[in-house]
């Protein structure tokens, strides 16, 4: 096909947009924790970016996108990005594709912070993060996008509902189970120390998500534009739905509004290149309500999956995967879903989502358990009481 | 009248407020402060060294009540704020010679 | 013409840039209000985005850009974006155009928050916002850009000086008159609770405005580059001018500096595709001084148009519309202005700006009055005293 | 060649990205100063942008990129951007190139704030900034990129390691020497008032740097993609390296982590179009360690170059210039470095970096001294004690 | 000497400062606090339910003056801070046994 | 017992803390406050006019000690906090009638 400068311009811009989402998650989370853990929480996002960036160049990319080995993992030909010069893949530079995909791997790890916020040891997070991205993210990316067995199955995941959101959401839950509740959880309130910081994070996420979803078209064309507008619509519908649902139960919080927007964004992610704008209203609105309910369920259960990655990314991603199988419309992305009579697609979606869910949850549980039993995942009681900013970083967020 | 000044853990502040309310002591003034106790705060181990975090966040509560209420207020605060661990805080009782309600200008007792 | 991937890449990126401006306005405003209304103020911007996004997909777009009906409104053929597939309009995907325009509609409503900040009921804002965008924004967009009567007249508005800024600025004033002053206005000072937040908002606005103005070329070409550089220059000249003017009167505040930048950005908006860089220095600098004077005038009058949308967007937009008629240069955008002897253009600009002003102000006044008399626009005295964050959202911004 | 819409789309987007870096530097610095100087510090970045933007249009661009006069400065043919219409240079609009380059000039001045933070007079900064960009930045840009003598020499500087970072870093040191230490420096601690603000700034810098480096390809192609991925990798390696180094010395601070990221970004800047991803790991990691050591050295010396522009930009830029001469790889950017046997390139790099360093340091020292002796560079003791926000701007950052 | 501790509405703080200054009482120390009065703050109606906002922002002012100035200070504060509505605040007078100026070390009594 | 209330420059706070610790006075409570002294803060010259900055950031330290420790505490604070320039602050001594350790409920007298 040859390089297309327009497609390349878009993939470069989209990569920048998605890159910003990782610190965006950090701010989103950082505002929700207590003041004494603000820096820790934001820093773990930056660290996720730094660790995954280096790992991706060294061998993450090749594990994900190297030539397929038995449907489960990529070969090692791109180790250290060897042999990738300035040439193109499709209509964009191969290195542009590498960089774009890298930003997805990075943010996925950053989302996981939710399950261990305010209590994880810095050194253990680094170790865990490095292993998790290698053992969970890279295989999943290969299965779905790298020519692995889920791709073979015909499962659709436009921009990472399964690979990014189901995997991170359920992994966060697994970690939360292993690391245990924060001291005082359920006994006294743990109010967000700066909701404006969370709103800034949300703004960056909404903004970056245009790169996430519309960039996943890998071309600057009508499909990318479709992905962009359904992304925005689902976010809006999700925000309104969660707001109304929480209004019904009490006060319509601004935190609920942006959580709903993220829920909508998550749910539209796998569907963005397959559904039309009207469907995206439904997908977003249902996401807002389902994820809000999941959050209430989690709180009811007393699970301290602290910043709701499970409720928003896990459950939102699951709904998105299924919704793709429901609403996919041939004129948009060449595939049809349940409402157009295609049961098979619907089933493929469920199998893919379920497999990713089980794989991510199980491997994370084991990995977290091993780390916890060896080097220890959690800080000491005193360190937690004092806060991670001082105990892990020797810093205070605000003077 | 006496001013009861209590320095408590911030995570116990809500409970202290509630218990005081249950006992009928509604009015109070609260301030975010930092404190260091006789034990010099909390010691952390870090790569073989000991690091001291001596200034910890606390909440200060000031309640002005009649002399004969003092003990009940102290008891209420003490039982609501106590965890039994270092850092639970102190209560000080200070004499108040006059108390004025600004809204009406009236002098209370 | 066929799809051009470069033009498409630019419109996608520009859409993302403008999208970020809406939360940007939220932060810009949010920093200026009192702590107790911080979340409310930021949230109203997010809500503006969510409401308009859904309305736009459902029928806002077709009212604005559907086939012309008597010069006043668009037809209904694009209801629910029906019939808009992946094909292009001009050289970009039709859905890309829809999304780009959407971001303009959203930010316009967000600017309006200025006139009701710190006292509007959340539910009434939602109702008001939905009606305002339908009754004021959509017709105006149609008149100027959708083939309506102002387009026929030959009025120039490159990126929305009339449609976005005059309309929102004067509407904000109308709302301020209906809703009344904040309790304590003029009696005690109401200091901005976080000017750094306002500066962050300004940074996002300046950044996003490149998409706003240069994206309005709808192509990635020399005209877009011209729009970009005059945008930056006018912002800079505006910042310097307001700074110096306020220095002369007292201290050169940072709030003044960024207000001047926004004033410059507003003023160059209608002109960006018609004037050259030297003209943009004049346009920006004059905007800084005029808008600063308008703010002093407003304060002198005791009007509580609280965050100066009228002074900056209304008056700045008016000046920009007129300035377009003065400085337009044929070699840039094919039209000439007053200094090149074209009186007609100058008059067309004044008619267009005046019509938009009157229409927006009058309809907003009536709409706000009706809502105020029925469901009530304003919170109760106690709710206002306690602050909208607690009373409307049940939240505190900072713990 | 004719205009390429894809290349143009990328240069427009990249310009927006780099634009955002200037307020990004403001936030990065603003978080590190004391609360009483927060607005001043952020505002100086905005002012740098405003001043340079106007100067660039008037004569800065022509001094830098006008036709070469004896290898030292550009001619005056583009004064007021005269004669630059909508036509292209290479494959992008000439005005796009002007705007892109402008953003580099602006951020360079903003970086300088480090050397005078918390004590410079607002009016003197304006004067200084205007003169510095004219006397130091414009000539250097001409020497390296505008066809001047360093370009002739064959020195490589892909995106501004020499022009932007060495020049600003060493100039900041010169100013720090002239203006003197902050009152109380070394006597009592001066803790950063908001590290989250610094982290937000870092996020914007990392994001914008993709435009800075990948935009410098001036085309949307494989080279741009290479620049983008090496940029991200070096940032990550720098963050990890500084974190580990500071961990070894005490606690791994989040401030160290992002300082390391910036160090990595600085160092990769001149090299981004010449080295491959594996080299960028080395360049970034070494930058993290060298810049951290430089910071310790500076503190040891008692130099109050307050926000470490010298340690991070000056020393990081120096290392980057040299590293380009070491790691340049023919298959990436057509040049070879020391490890591929090309000693000449290595020497050219050292000469160029050294010349820029000496020129910037010397001229800045003289300029600062003259301003200090005439109008005075520094505020009075009382003004410094009260803080620059109140004394220079009449404002408080937070109410 | 006495320490006069006044808890006032934040929006009246500026005016209190000015009035005190007009009366010649320049020196003071101010703290941002939160308070709850006997009426338990403010009650809001929300969808048929009542919601209480009990901790409201207040400013606390501490002024140490000679015994014979106390009444004038109280009067000044009271008149500047009063709105007549619930939440206007309180003034407490506390004995001060000694007062030292750090700059000179002198004891002001 | 007495409560020693000291208002000091924030930049001297650390040093005061250290000196107190050296003298064996570990326990204390600290509050960020704003203060205005008799000299009405700091006067700045601005374009021919004078501008007053009257409310400046200060740190307030409260230490409750036995009566016989009072002078040594005052001395320690005074020497650590003094710069000799306007704005160094004040120390006030207030009687404390009772002091309770919340952790144990014991009364410290
Ligand atoms: N003598 C004192 N003077 C002032 N404040 C004190 C004093 N002793 C304790 N405090 C306050 O009480 C808090 C808790 O004190 P700590 O000694 O840790 O508690 P305890 O020993 O009662 O468990 C301290 O952080 C400090 O704010
Ligand atoms: N007994 C008290 N002890 C401590 N603080 C009090 C007391 N009574 C009132 N306050 C303070 O004064 C503030 C205003 O009290 P409130 O009862 O609402 O005012 P009033 O009844 O005088 O109008 C409260 O928020 C609280 O900070
Ligand atoms: N009479 C007073 N009552 C309450 N606080 C005071 C009083 N005098 C001084 N202060 C506090 O001490 C601080 C320093 O006072 P200042 O008069 O400037 O110091 P000095 O004269 O001792 O050098 C003030 O900002 C204020 O907070």
Largest interface: A-C, 60 and 62 residues
- Give the helix level of chain A as a range of percent: 55-70%
Q: What does the average pLDDT of chain B come to?
A: 94
Uncertain segments of chain A: none
The amount of beta strand of chain A, in percent, is under 5%
CATH architecture of chain A: Orthogonal Bundle
* Spatial arrangement of strands, main beta sheet of chain A: 1-2
**Overall form of chain A:** globular
Q: How would a crystallographer describe the biggest sheet of chain A?
A: 2 strands, antiparallel
Q: Which topology of chain B does CATH recognise?
A: Alpha-Beta Plaits
Structural class of chain A: mainly alpha
Rg value of chain A: 20 Å
Helix-strand makeup class of chain B:
alpha+beta
CATH topological fold name of chain A: Ammonium transporter fold
Classify the beta-strand content of chain B into a percent band: 35-45%
Give a list of the ligands.
adenosine-5'-diphosphate
Descriptive overview:
- The complex is a heterohexamer, with three copies of chain A (399 residues) and three copies of chain B (109 residues).
- Chain A has 399 residues and is mostly helical.
- Chain A has a single domain, classed as Ammonium transporter fold.
- Helix content of chain A is 69%, strand content 2%.
- Chain A is built from 15 helices and four strands.
- Chain A has helices spanning 5-32, 38-65, 94-112, 122-145, 149-153, 161-179, 195-214, 222-249, 254-268, 277-301, 309-327, 330-333, 343-373, 381-386, 388-393, and strands at residues 68-69, 73-74, 88-89, 92-93.
- Chain A has a two-stranded antiparallel ribbon.
- In chain A, strand 3 (88-89) and strand 4 (92-93) form a beta hairpin.
- In chain A, helix 6 runs antiparallel to helix 11 (309-327), helix 8 (222-249) packs antiparallel against helix 9 and helix 9 crosses helix 10.
- The radius of gyration of chain A is 20 Å and the shape is globular.
- The mean pLDDT of chain A is 97.
- By secondary structure, chain B is an alpha+beta fold.
- Chain B has one domain (2-108): 2-Layer Sandwich (Alpha-Beta Plaits), CATH 3.30.70.120.
- Chain B has a four-stranded antiparallel beta sheet with strand order 2-5-1-6. A two-stranded antiparallel ribbon of chain B has the order 3-4.
- In chain B, a hairpin with a 2-residue loop joins strand 3 (42-46) and strand 4.
- Chain B is elongated and about 60 Å long.
- In chain B, 46% of the residues are buried.
- Chains A and C meet through helix 1, helix 7, helix 8, helix 9 and helix 10 of A and helix 1, helix 2, strand 4, helix 3 and helix 7 of C.
- Strand 7 of chain E pairs antiparallel with strand 6 (90-95) of chain F.
- The structure holds adenosine-5'-diphosphate (ADP) (3 copies).
- One adenosine-5'-diphosphate sits between chains E (7, 35-39, 56, 58, 86-90) and B (27-29, 62-64, 101-103).
């Amino acid at each position: 096909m040859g390089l297309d400068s327009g497609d390349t311009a878009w993939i470069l811009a989209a990569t920048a947009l998605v890159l910003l989402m990782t610190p965006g998650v950090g701010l989103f989370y950082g505002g929700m924790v207590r003041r004494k853990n603000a820096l820790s929480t934001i820093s773990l996002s930056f660290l996720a970016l730094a660790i995954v960036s280096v790992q991706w160049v060294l061998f993450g990319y090749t594990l994900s996108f190297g030539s397929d080995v038995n449907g489960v993992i990529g070969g090692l030909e791109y180790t250290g990005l060897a042999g990738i010069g300035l040439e193109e893949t499709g209509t964009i530079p191969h290195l542009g594709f590498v960089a774009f995909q890298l930003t997805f791997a990075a943010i996925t790890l950053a989302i996981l912070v939710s399950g261990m916020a305010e209590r994880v040891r810095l050194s253990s997070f680094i170790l865990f993060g490095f292993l998790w991205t290698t053992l969970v993210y890279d295989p999943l990316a290969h299965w779905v996008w790298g020519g692995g067995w889920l791709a073979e199955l015909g499962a659709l995941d436009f921009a990472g509902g399964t690979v990014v959101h189901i995997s991170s959401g359920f992994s966060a839950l697994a970690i939360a189970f292993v690391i245990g509740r924060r001291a005082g959880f359920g006994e006294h309130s743990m109010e967000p120390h700066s909701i404006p910081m969370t709103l800034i994070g949300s703004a960056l996420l909404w903004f970056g998500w245009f790169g996430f979803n519309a960039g996943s078209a890998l071309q600057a064309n009508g499909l990318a534009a479709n992905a962009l507008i359904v992304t925005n619509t689902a976010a809006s519908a999700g925000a309104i739905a969660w707001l109304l649902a929480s209004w019904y139960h009490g006060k319509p919080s601004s935190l609920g509004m942006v959580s709903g927007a993220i829920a909508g964004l998550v749910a539209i992610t796998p569907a963005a290149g397959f559904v039309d704008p009207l469907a995206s209203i439904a997908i977003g609105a249902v996401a807002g309500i389902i994820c809000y309910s999941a959050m209430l369920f989690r709180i009811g259960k007393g699970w301290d999956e602290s910043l709701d990655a499970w409720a928003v990314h896990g459950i939102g991603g699951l709904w998105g995967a299924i919704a793709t199988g429901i609403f996919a419309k041939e004129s948009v992305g060449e595939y049809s879903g349940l409402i157009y009579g295609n049961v098979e697609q619907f089933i493929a979606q469920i199998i893919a989502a379920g497999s990713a869910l089980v794989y991510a949850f199980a491997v994370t549980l084991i990995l977290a358990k091993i780390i916890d039993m060896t080097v220890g995942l959690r800080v000491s009681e005193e360190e937690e009481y004092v806060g991670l900013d001082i105990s892990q970083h020797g810093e205070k967020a605000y003077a | 009248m006496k001013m009861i000044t209590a320095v408590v853990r911030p995570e116990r502040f809500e409970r202290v407020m509630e218990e005081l309310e249950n006992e009928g002591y509604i009015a109070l003034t609260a301030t975010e402060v930092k404190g260091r106790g006789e034990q010099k705060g909390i010691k952390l181990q870090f790569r073989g060294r000991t690091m001291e975090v001596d200034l910890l966040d606390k909440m200060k509560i000031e309640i002005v009540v009649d002399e004969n209420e003092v003990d009940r207020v102290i008891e209420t605060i003490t039982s609501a704020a106590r965890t039994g661990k270092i850092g639970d805080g102190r209560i000080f009782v200070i004499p108040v010679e006059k108390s004025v309600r600004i809204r009406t200008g009236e002098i209370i007792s």
